[in-house]
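Below is a filled-in request sheet from our internal design queue. Each sheet records the structural input a requester submitted and the sequence that came back. We keep these sheets so that new team members can see what a complete request looks like end to end.

REQUESTER: design group, bay 2
PRIORITY: normal
MODE: inverse folding
CHAIN LENGTH: 480
BACKBONE (tokenized):
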């Protein structure tokens, strides 16, 4: 097709355009020099700033940023965004972080650094971006992880009032669908769900997690049925009472002290509680905490709907042998900073930690209740003291059914003898379970248990004040 303009016509138009621009620029310079002469300096700069304001194009967008940390705690919106966005992956995304543990049903997907996700909420278009920024000087530099959310400014209220709460609710739903229970501990170096978690980096108060593999449930626990029922009812009541706790001005937390000899199922009960509630467990070894300040940081980095477990509190001799200022135990600051004290532990539990977390359960376990500091035992500190006792006839029946598939409602020639032996012998459920596992043949296994119990009795382990089957197991047992 022939060109519509000849080359001479183009060069003519260009010349005309150029001279028009030159005359515009010249007149602007003239205006500027007149303004310089006529208008005082301050008024002039004010007028220029007004001009600039009106003629600089304004960005129509607003960007909200969500840091991984919010003060000392985890940022709930960050966590929710991470989970929610894993369900919003579009084909445009180029890099994703994917992982799965044996126990997880589905893959865990997380955004890689710099990736963007688009979302639509009613009529609002939203863009999420995952950003990682290195901050501070090497080698102490730390990675700051941030989610950025951009959208048109005019939707600010809608995003704040409706979209963000929607993201929080959705994330909670997703979390519950594929919920695996995690066991956190301070020694564990890896965060194994593949998400970009682990807020405390290398500063000594980080938790690592593994999936809780403990199969214990209330059904497999050999305990007196009424004690078991009492614990389940207590947990249920606790879960339902959010509003009640708020009304009476108490932190929404519950404390249990489990005491009893080794192998009676204290740790198994904690696992059963976690499996029942679908709460994560934070296993806190006091020996791994160096100071009250570190303890506070550590506790603040735990999440809601969790069980804080402090095992063998009596054996934390390092803690208990340190000076304990009972008079001062409610003070915010420890008596000597830089040390871990019992007062610091109680402070964290009663005060700071309990008031900033929701749906928390605290469990202390001990083999020796009598060795505990009275400050720990005073009424109101732990809501329930649960005695885990030696194996009773009822506990034995549950284990026999679990381990050997024996129907305990039917007559069994061994049961009478075993019941009698259990009354006069201190055998833990762990010991009984171990005997039952030794043989696949039920009769042989039961005979093995009879022999074991007789040996124990003959070794002189008979007891005087062993709780009977009709005892509730909740009362403290006095070993004679
Ligand atoms: N009450 C119980 N019901 C069923 N199994 C039990 C019970 N108690 C112990 N066991 C079995 O014994 C094993 C050890 O028990 P567990 O670790 O729960 O005892 P513990 O009271 O925490 O002991 P420790 O004081 O030494 O920590 C469990 O894995 C479980 O198999
Ligand atoms: Mg234990």
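RETURNED SEQUENCE:
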């Amino acid at each position: 097709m022939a060109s519509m303009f000849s080359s001479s016509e183009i060069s003519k138009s260009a010349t005309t355009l150029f001279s028009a621009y030159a005359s515009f620029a010249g007149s602007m310079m003239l205006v500027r020099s007149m303004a310089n002469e006529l208008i005082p300096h301050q008024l002039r700069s004010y007028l220029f700033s007004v001009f600039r304001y009106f003629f600089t194009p304004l960005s129509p967008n607003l960007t909200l940023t969500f840091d991984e940390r919010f003060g000392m705690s985890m940022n709930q919106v960050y966590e929710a965004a991470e989970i929610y966005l894993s369900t919003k992956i579009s084909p445009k995304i180029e890099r994703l972080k994917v992982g799965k543990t044996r126990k997880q049903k589905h893959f865990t997907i997380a955004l890689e650094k710099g990736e963007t996700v688009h979302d639509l909420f009613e009529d609002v278009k939203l863009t999420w971006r995952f950003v990682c920024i290195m901050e501070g000087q090497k080698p102490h530099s730390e990675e700051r992880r941030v989610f950025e959310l951009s959208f048109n400014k005019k939707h600010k209220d809608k995003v704040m009032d409706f979209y963000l709460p929607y993201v929080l609710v959705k994330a909670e739903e997703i979390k519950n669908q594929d919920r695996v229970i995690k066991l956190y501990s301070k020694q564990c170096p890896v965060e194994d769900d593949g998400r970009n978690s682990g807020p405390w980096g290398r500063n000594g108060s980080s938790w690592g997690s593994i999936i809780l593999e403990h199969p214990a449930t209330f059904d497999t626990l050999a305990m007196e049925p009424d004690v078991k029922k009492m614990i389940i009812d207590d947990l249920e009541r606790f879960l339902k009472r959010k509003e009640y706790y708020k009304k009476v001005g108490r932190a929404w937390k519950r404390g249990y002290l489990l005491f009893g000899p080794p192998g009676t199922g204290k740790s198994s009960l904690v696992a059963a509680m976690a499996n029942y509630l679908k709460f994560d467990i934070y296993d806190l070894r006091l020996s791994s905490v160096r100071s009250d300040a570190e303890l506070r940081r550590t506790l603040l980095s735990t999440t809601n709907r969790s069980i804080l477990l402090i095992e063998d509190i009596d054996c934390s001799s390092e803690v208990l042998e340190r000076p304990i200022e009972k008079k001062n135990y409610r003070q915010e600051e420890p008596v000597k900073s830089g040390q871990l004290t019992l007062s610091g532990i109680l402070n964290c539990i009663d005060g700071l930690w309990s008031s900033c977390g929701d749906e928390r359960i605290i469990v202390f376990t001990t083999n020796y209740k009598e060795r505990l500091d009275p400050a720990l035992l005073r009424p109101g500190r732990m809501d329930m003291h649960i005695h885990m006792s030696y194996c009773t006839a009822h506990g034995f029946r549950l284990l026999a059914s679990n381990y050997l598939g024996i129907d305990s409602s039917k007559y069994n020639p061994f049961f009478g003898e075993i019941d009698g032996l259990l009354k006069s012998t201190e055998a833990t459920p762990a010991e009984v379970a171990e005997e039952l596992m030794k043989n696949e043949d039920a009769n042989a296994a039961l005979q093995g248990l009879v022999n074991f119990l007789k040996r124990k009795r003959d070794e002189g382990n008979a007891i005087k004040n062993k709780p009977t089957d009709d005892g509730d197991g909740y009362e403290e047992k006095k070993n004679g």
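SHEET NOTES:
- The chain is about 40% helix and 15% strand.
- Residues 220-223, 262-268, 367, 388, 429-430, 433 surround adenosine-5'-triphosphate (ligand 1) (CB under 6 Å).
FILED BY: M.R.
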